[in-house]
Structure prediction request, 477 residues.
Amino acid sequence: MRTKLISECRRADTVYIYGAGAVADVLYIFLKQKGMQNKVRAFVVTKLGGNVSEKFGLEVTELAGNLIELKKALVIVAVQEGIQEEIGRVLHENGIAGFLCVDSGKLLDDFYEELYREPVDEHKVMFQNQSGEGYGGNPKYIAEKLLETDKSRRLELVWAVSRYRDSFPERIRQVIFGSEEYYKELATARVWVDNSRKGRSVRKREGQFYVQAWHGAAPVKRVECDVADKLPPYYIEGAKHDSEMADVFLSGSEFYSKLYRDSFWYDGAILKYGLPRHDVFWHMEEIREKVRRFYRIEKEVSVVLYAPTFRDYGDTKCYDLDLKGVLDALERRFHRPFRMMVSRHPVNYQEYSFERDAEYLSVGEYDDFQELLAAADVLITDYSGCMYDFSYTGRPVFLYQKDYEKYLEDRNFYIPMDKLPYIKAHTNDELRKAIEEFDRKGYTVRLQTFMESMGNYDKGDASEKVVRYLREHVLDF
Prediction:
């Protein structure tokens, strides 16, 4: 593969990389290692959709707008093998014959051979939050506790981000997710901490330790092998690969410990410590003040957070929450003013369809969603697992489920919605009425009963327990 790819690239005047995922990243870095990155004109995808618009300083562009240039150039298809045939068919249909499909396995062999020339750094810990999101999730709270515990400052903490951010502590060094530096750090870190799947482009070497700090906690929508018929083959392959690499999974409850065994293709160790991100609910007042200062919200004003999940089927009409009607209903029921926060799910690329004159704070760019939960007085969501996290506050959760039947068909649930303690509505009228008629006493009893049934491990010290485990078994500091 190496000889053919290099020779074809050397003969070509211009190269386009078809793909915008991890395989495409690795290919570009590999060509850079061989001094041929200047031949690459752009990355090409069938449709931009949720893809980034730029990689390595090069444009990510759509096929339809570049047919003339592509017919003159060498096109290298750098995607998972499972979809290469489909991409090849699309290229043939558009009159592009000069293309080459990479063997991703052999490409990775060559790529990692170069990376493994550097040894594992026994004091380096590398973090990721949702494949490049900001400073949040379970990884953040583990990192905070490591910084607090590492009195001698022996550890080197690295974090993969989609863009550089100002919110990180000074001692945490940021690298761009998917960059050459990212793979170098990944190949030399003693410990990985991640809360989403690492795909097949990531390889773990001897001497490395992987903490899978999974982002899920709620017994709501089905995941992993329980929705295997809905997932693309490349995701399933990557998930199995990720579980094989993981040394430990973190669990917050008996429910999730069993789920890891039944549905995550995983039979390794489970740390039953609770979830580090849930520690925040034992320090809510200081977090509440922090978020309010950041958004300049007056003390006498309460906060309602609207945080719906994404849809695989691309529905946008489900995001038509009547913001003004909700605020009016909340103010009538609780007799105080409210501000609305709206948080877009990190993999949701659809537009929300609010009324044009609706007033709200867009908080999707706030690094730590857990802090938003801790600061909110009321949560409105739909099927998102954040309803479960928010339950630790004891505050009201309302579920606006306009597309309930469709979502049920698409994902289904571990526990039927009518068995959950939260207040449900399928229309804006129903939601407003449910808010105005909210019975706090009855809700509190139902919520407590439900949470007790889950076998939760959380006591506010999960981060401390994870760090203690790492000190005793993995890291020397």
